[in-house]
Amino acid sequence: MVSKLRIKIFFIIAAFALGSTAFANDNIHFYQNAIDSQDQYVDDFAVAQKDGKYGFVNKNDEFVVKPKYNYAQNTKGDYFFVCKDEKGEKCTYMHKKTHKFLTIFKYIGGGNSDISEGFSEGRAKVVVTDKNGKWKTGYINESGKEVITPQYVWGSAFRNGVAEVRLTEEFPRKTIKIDKAGKVVK
């Protein structure tokens, strides 16, 4: 039987060799956040996986959110982003302290790296699929209310009161700016 130490050493060597961002500790695997490639912790929490499910641990490697989600992402600010389905299409924001869900599980998360921004200037990007299966981006406020209906093929986080969005995927990709109410800014 292979010792735990040998398994840990193999995993760490394999992670470095493959350029992975995973860490192992007593059957818990940690993943570096897209936000800061130097540290897997954001706001004193880290995404961790155990038995194929994701949750969140504190800096003492104790689960503060049990590993029961199929996808999880730590964002800057007050919220985690979690998905309860295999495809990452039933997702929501979860408050880091209360563990209450901000919205119902209707957003797309898995594969959508832009979610890592979390809330910026009181708005967070959300993504849904339209009737044709295309991704549409919109924004919610910190109460979970959709304040800008998902209608864009892409959107950035808000900076200085505006976000950049695209209406179509055709080239050249035209980007417009919108304010926090969704009105076009010139």
Describe the protein in words.
The protein is mainly β. It folds into 2 domains: 1-108, no CATH class; 118-186, no CATH class. Helices cover 8% and strands 40% of the residues. The chain is built from 1 helix and 16 strands. A 5-stranded antiparallel sheet has the order 1-2-3-4-5. The protein is globular, with a radius of gyration of 18 Å. The termini are far apart. Mean pLDDT is 78; it is low at 1-26 and 31-38.
Layout of SSEs?
Blueprint: H1 4-18, E1 22-25, E2 28-31, E3 46-50, E4 53-57, E5 63-69, E6 71-74, E7 79-83, E8 91-95, E9 119-120, E10 123-129, E11 135-140, E12 146-152, E13 154-155, E14 162-166, E15 175-179, E16 184-185
Antiparallel strand pairs: 1-2, 2-3, 3-4, 4-5, 6-7, 7-8, 9-10, 10-11, 11-12, 13-14, 14-15, 15-16
Short description:
With 186 residues, this protein is mainly beta. It is 8% helix and 40% strand.
* Total number of beta strands: 16
Strand content: 35-45%
The sequence of SSEs as H and E is HEEEEEEEEEEEEEEEE
Structural class: mainly beta
Number of helical regions: 1
Q: How confident overall, as mean pLDDT? A: 78
> Uncertain regions: pLDDT < 50 for 5+ in a row?
1-26, 31-38
The tally of domains stands at 2
Proportion of helical residues: under 10%
Give a quick account of the main beta sheet: strands, pairing sense, barrel closure: 5 strands, antiparallel
Ends distance: 67 Å
Tell me the Rg in angstroms.
Answer: 18 Å
Order of neighbouring strands in the sheet with most strands: 1-2-3-4-5
Report the principal-axis shape. globular
